[in-house]
Specification:
Distance between the termini of chain A: 33 Å
Helix content of chain A: over 70%
Family (chains A, B, C): Belongs to the MAPEG family.
Number of helices of chain A: 6
Keywords (chains A, B, C): Acetylation, Endoplasmic reticulum, Membrane, Mitochondrion, Mitochondrion outer membrane, Transferase, Transmembrane, Transmembrane helix
Subunit structure (chains A, B, C): Homotrimer; The trimer binds only one molecule of glutathione.
Number of strands of chain A: 0
CATH architecture of chain A: Up-down Bundle
Shape of chain A: elongated
Membrane topology (chains A, B, C): Multi-pass membrane protein
EC number (chains A, B, C): 2.5.1.18
Oligomer: homotrimer
Order of helices and strands of chain A: HHHHHH
Radius of gyration of chain A: 20 Å
Number of domains of chain A: 1
Chain lengths: 159, 159, 159
């Protein structure tokens, strides 16, 4: 019935799920921010990947010289790809983890540590900080996702 | 009980969730299509990234010359990566948005605009269209995801 | 009520959903493993992308020579990107598929074939095996995701 169906969409009322939605939203927005930073560096460094992006700088050779790679642009792009490689597994495994019945306090601990670690990772990458700053922040986020995956597989295991 | 559990999997009966499933399915299939287009250009342009992929063209130097980058292949690959950077956040945030209790009409508006924008983005990238065609279609999709994230965080916020 | 809400998070008790959580967890962990393999090859081949990563090898020119690409590192990175392009759609479409009410046996068949295909794909990429080993394992995983998407769109369709 309609009444029963309505309830099913109130998953968002569950506190663990609300916490998941909040932190997943934050880290996905942080990942999306990398696109804007890439655009900022491409425009200020005048370093583009597509001929049509340089058309406003003139025609022919005068525009062609802006078809190049730039160390700052490439650095942001590596940070963005690293986010895809790490935030996407967090969002996928985190959803299953939130549905696997963890304590709210344990779940919050996982979500908070991951989110802080990935924000630090971005600063470590873009400033850049000397190693092992970036390596450690990466490892912390990785470990949190691994810990959530362990809980998911222990709870759900059905091969 | 079994009866109650069965209901939980009927999320798919909720209209907002059905709309989400439809549009998420469409944009994920569109993203997957990029793999086929990449393969098409790699084969027709004879431009490969792995030595084992060129073995059918002969041995040694005659095959080695096909280990190269090609502008058309690289263009499709950039489009594919841009899809990963934008469609993946849409799918993740869109799921949370669909569970946050939006009006069906508002949800449909978000899903439809995003889907049309990303299909236009692919055409703008592959034809290619002059700027700001690609830039605008990217910005529209980005804004829709941002709008959904705002609704999710406003509804779920629990830090 | 609280009692009703608690039930909503017991999605994990549904057998199809448990199977999905298990296989999605496994393939996401497999994808995450690629980061460790990349790090292993970067360290053993001494091939890095960031100047700060080579600081422990000394200063100036002596460290600069480790800022380079290496065929083994690039191969793992291509495998990792291919995982993102294929495992992410599986995780997204697979979730919707698990909620679309498939038979447990049919769902298990999809999840198992995809998971085996992607593990074989990684071996085919890293060893590397001669073609069409990698191509076939890619096509099998792709077809499974396509088949799930068809079921999702058939069940949920609401444009």
């Amino acid at each position: 019935s309609r009444g029963e169906m309505a309830k099913l969409t109130q998953l968002i009322d569950d506190e663990v799920f609300r916490a998941y939605a909040t932190y997943a939203g934050i880290v996905l927005l942080k990942m999306m921010l990398m696109s804007l930073i890439t655009a900022y560096f491409r425009i200020t460094r005048k370093a583009f990947a597509n001929p049509e992006d340089t058309a406003s700088f003139g025609k022919g050779e005068s525009a062609k010289k802006y078809m190049r790679t730039d160390p700052d642009v490439e650095r942001v792009r590596r940070g963005h790809l690293n986010d895809l490689e790490n935030i996407v597994p967090f969002v996928g495994i985190g959803l299953l983890y939130a549905l696997s019945g963890p304590e709210l306090s344990t779940a919050l601990l996982h979500f908070r540590i991951f989110t802080v670690a990935r924000i630090l990772h971005t600063f470590a990458y873009l400033i850049p900080l000397p190693q092992p700053g970036r390596g450690l922040s990466w490892a912390v986020g990785y470990s949190v996702t691994f810990s959530m995956a362990y809980k998911v597989l222990k709870t759900a295991w059905l091969l």
